[in-house]
Predict the 3D structure of the following.
Amino acid sequence: MGVERVMADHLGTTFPAAQLVIRQRGEIVYANAYGSLDPGSPNHPITPQTKFDLASVSKLFTVAALMTFAEQGRIALDQRVCEILPEVTGARAITAYPDPLTPGAFVAVVPATTARADASAITFRNLLAHNSGLPAWLPLWKLDTREARRATALTCAFAYPPGARVVYSDIGLILIGFALEALAGKSLDAIVRERVTAPLGLDSIGYGPIPPDNVAPTEFYAHQHRRMCGEVHDENAWSFGGVAGHAGVFGNARDLAAFGESLRTNRLLTRATLAEMTRLQAQDGAVRRGIGFALWSPDPSAASNPLSAQAFGHLGFTGTSLWIDPTRDLVVACLTNRVYYGRENADAIGAFRVALHRAIVSNQ
């Protein structure tokens, strides 16, 4: 099945809008935009300049910024987080955390226990490999003040003993954002701009909120009585003013692919740094994590599975993804707004990603 067929099969059902840019050996070999800003009207088509909410693909910009500090010797992967964020210390309970997709339900990573976790022992490597013990998510946005949200992220209970499991954690990347701000003495958006997007000339990439006139809309938020457009879809990032370590970045696929190419070719970070970032750091079943990156998975339903075993990348909840396959000299940036239709189509966007990557590599 060809790329165009895959896109056609999912446009209007899995997502109302998309951009796809494929680079190989440094050149753009495919670029297209699909759908409309208003699914009910074809009068405002998606263009190459349309910006999408990158969701958790934003994490890669946070991680890249952190690694520039690491290359300067200003932070170390095995440094304890409490050395920069002193609140991350002390014995913590290990308990279930609220399920972000099922209100009222909780996720128990390990059986109930009276054991305690030592927060002061966790390192930046733990946060970046998602094996720190921190919960995947907490409803920070429901707290009244920014100070309360920050304090809760810094002092929350653990979900499992550090190092015992791999649990992808927004909370861990929120702490990375706090640490960057403490290191630099400036806001995260300024840090990412100065250290990542400006040096690479990624003009479309930046944090919101942004003017909504050429932005792919996301979900209708009942609690805000409006559809989100130009404001971050993630509630916790929104509650931090749209700038957080785990989400908040907007951009187009062309610039996202250029960012991926800069990683593949060591334009931003050194070869040694990227080698460490793409080395297996933690594994839990078919889930394999590097430093900030998801690594190739043997799970046939994983987006990375059709790619080579050296592939690395990241997914975003809104329907976005960036994957780099160094064996094929390949970069694939695909942006969609699948949450326009709600949050219940996770299986459909998962199947789309696998089919898309399969179609791309079948043409290699």
Notes: The domain at 3-58+197-362 is CATH 3.40.710.10 (Beta-lactamase). The radius of gyration is 19 Å. The mean pLDDT is 97. The chain has ten helices and 18 strands.
